[in-house]
TrEMBL record:
Species whose genome carries this gene: Helicobacter canis
Protein function: Formation of pseudouridine at positions 38, 39 and 40 in the anticodon stem and loop of transfer RNAs.
Catalytic activities: uridine(38/39/40) in tRNA = pseudouridine(38/39/40) in tRNA
Annotated protein name in UniProt: tRNA pseudouridine synthase A
Pfam families associated with the record: PseudoU_synth_1
Record text on subunit structure and interactions: Homodimer.
EC number(s) on file: 5.4.99.12
GO BP terms in the entry: tRNA pseudouridine synthesis
Transmembrane residue ranges: none
Amino acid sequence: MKYFALKIAYNGASFSGFAPQRTAGIQSVSETLESTLLTLDIDSPVIGAGRTDKGVHSLGMVVRICAKDCWDSGRLCEILAPKLYPHIKLRAVWEVDSSFHPRFSARARSYLYVFSPHSMLPFFTPFIARESLGDYRALQECLRLCVGEHNFALFSKTGSSPKSTIRTIYSTHLSPRIYAGQQCYVVRIVGNAFLRAQVRLLLGACLAVSKGIITKDDFLAQRDAVRRHYSIPASPQGLYFGKVWYGGRF
């Protein structure tokens, strides 16, 4: 038996999320991968580096599968890629040892969030969120306050029960961009790991600070797990699972 890592990009609007969901008629990313692998006589569970909600996209999700010894990375990529396209793009395949785990072996991972306060053309709406922005500098400052090791328990979806809610965010970056002639903004967040819905809840609260809905002190109290002041997540459209690091600088 061989083990392979697959790097994939996908359009989250086409799926119920990465992991199986109770959504009638819509497959998850992992279910789609598993059913497609079965057409190649590869019966393998798909283990991912993270999980994305419905509507959330990926630029570089890494998953692990196992296959018979007759497969090699080049042949697997050549045959599997056209079967997954167009909703899933197979970007790379490489062989790994059995100890490799896409989630637990990762040193860091990143998310990108693309949003605009303006109405976009309809074919951009699944990929660029419409979110109003108040004070740009306030948003920038609030994102900087996310950096460091903190107890993000109050920035996670209820119902999840991780062993620890302590996470480390290594960096955040906010930059203005022009897409399709409209003013947009891109947020990049890099951390060691993220709780369920943590990124969307953090972004929702940071945007709320920029609009004066909550104060910076309110945000800090929630960041430090003292009191929840804001619980409306940013919309999933425009959120991308970016990249996973298993070594090197990030």
